Amino acid sequence: MTAVKLIPALKQTIWGGQRLKELYDGKNMKNIAESWVLSCHPAGESVIATGAFAGKTLTEALASGGRDALGTACPAGEFPLLIKLIDAADDLSVQVHPDDGYARAKENSFGKTECWYILDAAEGAQLIYGMKDELTREQFRAAIENNTLLDHVKRVPVKAGDVAYIPAGTLHAIGRGILLAEVQQSSDITYRVYDYGRKQNGKPRQLHIRQAIDVTNLAPTAGDFAPAQPPSHISGGTAQTLCRCDKFTMTSLSVSSRYDGEADRRSFRSLLVLDGEGTYRDGEAAFPLQRGDSVFVPAGAGAFHIEGELRLLLTSL
User: Fold this and answer.
1) Exposed, middle or buried: residue 204 (CB in 10 Å: 0-12, 13-18, 19+)?
2) Which of 84, 92, 109, 271 could pair with 295 in a Cys bridge, judged by C-beta atoms 3.0 to 4.6 Å apart?
3) Would you say 253 and 259 are in contact if contact means Cβ atoms under 8 Å apart?
4) At 226, is the pLDDT very low, low, confident or very high (cuts 50, 70, 90)?
């Protein structure tokens, strides 16, 4: 399998905005809340735009082209990650995700650890990021049922360039006015615990109180966000490690002329263009790049090159 450019799955919700409609064809959608730019999840699969597999889903291409494309860091053969752009015109619900053990036992799924890279934030924009004070399970249930949960959560102001690592079990919410890139495990499990009294189709959206009580870390969240590593100079630009955990590694690349990368046999590479334009090239594939484009580079593809002036999010296992 060769490197391919992907067409994202687009999602519309009651809190979504208009900024992603500038990047993607959502003319018939009221808003685009999420663009799933790299996904093999059945709730929204990426479709291949280039090469021999054009028109097929990435899942279909991997089934035909061999699971070796995922790399030796993914021995189970399941596609492990889901990468999104998220545009929050309104506050998202306060929610939590389970870890792998709980998700496998209860949902037959990966858990969901994730990381957010803030691309733009309105003045005063905030995230909910864990607990401000410690609660017992009984106190947590009472706060949900009495609509006092927001008295106990930690709010953190954010700006463009901030990075928020959200391990499974962390209560969280994206606030209005935020545009971000999210890298997460390939899971669509969300346990919603507070939704501001909003209704959809005339009914309140479902809450998942029992599951949230099971999985939420109720200890106070220490600190705010761990700072990203400072940028380092590389040939043709700079690289900045944003997050490195046991599930994935995220790096911000600023390319001013030409970046030389490599996809070894350990892991595939995901490239998401955040700004600018340029060209992707390797020994077998070549195509133009612009803002919003997503590229899957299979493990073992070897050397690849990105030319132009652009900023990218590079993700691997």
Assistant:
1) exposed
2) 271
3) yes
4) low
Predicted local distance difference test score (pLDDT) of residue 108: 95
Q: How far apart are CA 303 and CA 132, in angstroms?
A: 46
Three-state DSSP string of the chain = CCCEEEECEEECCCCEECHHHHCCCCCCCCCECEEEEECCCCCCCCEECCCCCCCCEHHHHHHHHCHHHHCCCCCCCCCCEEEEEEEECCCCCEEECCCHHHHHHHHCCCCCCEEEEEEEECCCCEEEEEECCCCCHHHHHHHHHCCCHHHCEEEEECCCCCEEEECCCCCEEECCCEEEEEEEECCCCCEEEECCCCEECCEECCCCHHHHHHHCCCCECCCCCCCCCCCEEECCEEEEEEEECCCCEEEEEEECCEEEEEECCCCCEEEEEEEEEEEEEECCCEEEEECCCEEEECCCCEEEEEEEEEEEEEEEC
pLDDT for 184 equals 98
Contact 94, 148 (CB under 8 A): no
Q: Give the residue numbers annotated as catalytic, written as ranges.
A: 192
User: Is 131 within 8 Å of 232 (Cβ atoms)?
Assistant: no
- The model carries a pTM of 0.96
* Mean pLDDT value of segment 73-96: 94
Structure tokens at 219: 């200890």
16-39 pLDDT per residue, tens: 999 999 899 877 899 999 999 999
Q: What does the H/E/C string look like for 146-192?
A: CCCHHHCEEEEECCCCCEEEECCCCCEEECCCEEEEEEEECCCCCEE
Triad 283, 286, 290: Cα angle to 5°: 140
Residue 310 near residue 277 (C-beta atoms within 8 A): yes
What is the structure's pLDDT at 27? Answer: 76
Please give the pLDDT value at position 76: 75
